[in-house]
Amino acid sequence: MSQVFTNVTELPPDPLFGLKARYNQDTRKDKVDLGIGAYRDNNGKPWILPAVRQAEQKLINSPDYNHEYLSISGFEPFYTGAAKVLLGDASPAIKDQRVVSQQSLSGTGALHLAGLFLKKFYSGGPHTIYLSQPTWANHKQVFDTLGLTVRSYPYWNKETKSLDLDGFLRTIQSAEPGSIFLLHACAHNPTGLDPNYEQWNQILAALEAKKHLIIFDSAYQGFASGDLEKDAYPIRKAINDSAIKSTPIIICQSFAKNVGMYGERVGAIHVVLPTKDDQFGRAVKSQLNLIIRCEISNPPAYGSKIVATILNDTALYSQWRKDLTTMSSRIIKMRDTLRTKLEKLGTPGTWNHITEQTGMFSFTGLSPEQVERLEKKHGVYLVSSGRASVAGLNDGNVDKVANAIDEVVRNVQPKL
Ligand code: LMR
């Protein structure tokens, strides 16, 4: 084998799924999983949203229920409903039919489609994509693999544990015109730190001035504030309020977290054109269709039908909105509890960032060495960057986690 395949080197396990595998093998009864971002209820169990349970029943009982192929674009009631979730029912872009949508294999599939489409067709600037520093571990490898040049923009100021807005704006200004910028629409992964509205306005204006192309990664809509509208602020500002006038905008959307459809791989890519051009829109759609046809033939049906059932039924939609509040408020409560406990213990350092951050994750500020000790000594699992999935905390384990963090902070000095 080694003679016919060269350079097939064994790679280390994926940082997130490798962590999950180690957690699963750990036999300690009181282990705690704060690794992969997946919502857990207050008993530490996966939660099937009530809206999903009801939609599944409705779907299965429908006389039209079947397992036929979808079209290459996917399930139309799904991807048209999905665009409305992002842009709002009254979006001028939707009304003018400027939104080209294609169902994808969740957010990662949408990012891959975006990267491949840009690689094949983008001529508005260099094939250089700027990612936030830090960002979700998978971003870099998705775009690297496709042959885009990956660079980063400053985002997290380690000292102040806040947004490095100046650094971010400086990079936007110094990047070659027409570069590609990937923005986390809300609930930034891994930092849990989002720009406020005023900061978003500045960021979008700077991007427009340099004619950079924006890809929004929207994986957590409804998870930051509990409110779909508020969490869509930068997307709607850019598109509906025409903050971006000159270039198309790409949105990569996942329903893994906000509908809890993790394993069903439900997502979409939307290419929003700045001006109406039906013929060009059809051409974009046909090219996205070709990529899908070659790679997966046509998208998976079951999860998208469940989500479509929720999006197109008034009662189920309002149940979903309640479910989003249930999830986001439990996470907010756990942030409060963890911070309060650490402050009561007098754990060295400051812990206000835990409640100031938003969405599923907290960037705790713990060092890789401290994280390693948390795992080995205490059975508390989080990503080596110090990112903790707050959704893994509950009333039964938060004391243990606070005590464990207190112990490692006192006993392991971060390397300078
Ligand atoms: C995470 O960041 O934990 C999730 O988005 C899961 C994943 O696929 O990496």
Write the layout of secondary structure elements.
Blueprint: H1 15-25, E1 32-33, H2 50-61, H3 76-87, H4 92-95, E2 99-105, H5 106-121, E3 128-133, H6 137-145, E4 149-154, E5 156-157, E6 162-163, H7 165-174, E7 180-184, H8 197-209, E8 213-218, H9 228-231, H10 233-239, E9 249-254, E10 266-272, H11 278-295, H12 302-311, H13 314-345, H14 352-356, E11 361-363, H15 368-378, E12 380-381, E13 387-389, H16 398-411
Parallel strand pairs: 1-12, 3-4, 3-7, 7-8, 8-9
Antiparallel strand pairs: 2-10, 5-6, 9-10, 11-13
Helix pairs in contact: 2-12, 2-13, 3-12, 5-6, 7-8, 8-10, 13-16, 15-16
> What's the story with the biggest beta sheet?
7 strands, mixed
Given helix and strand content, the structural type is alpha/beta
Widest sheet: strand order?
2-10-9-8-7-3-4
Using the alpha-carbon principal axes, give the shape. Answer: globular
Q: Beta fraction of the residues?
A: 5-15%
At the first level of CATH, the class of the largest domain is: Alpha Beta
Q: Supply the CATH architecture of the largest domain.
A: 3-Layer(aba) Sandwich
Number of domains: 2
Helix content: 40-55%
Task: List the secondary-structure elements in sequence, H or E.
Answer: HEHHHEHEHEEEHEHEHHEEHHHHEHEEH
Mean pLDDT over the full residue set: 96
Spans of at least 5 consecutive residues with low confidence: none
CA-atom Rg in angstroms: 22 Å
Helical segment count: 16
CATH topology of the largest domain: Aspartate Aminotransferase, domain 2
CATH superfamily of the largest domain: Type I PLP-dependent aspartate aminotransferase-like (Major domain)
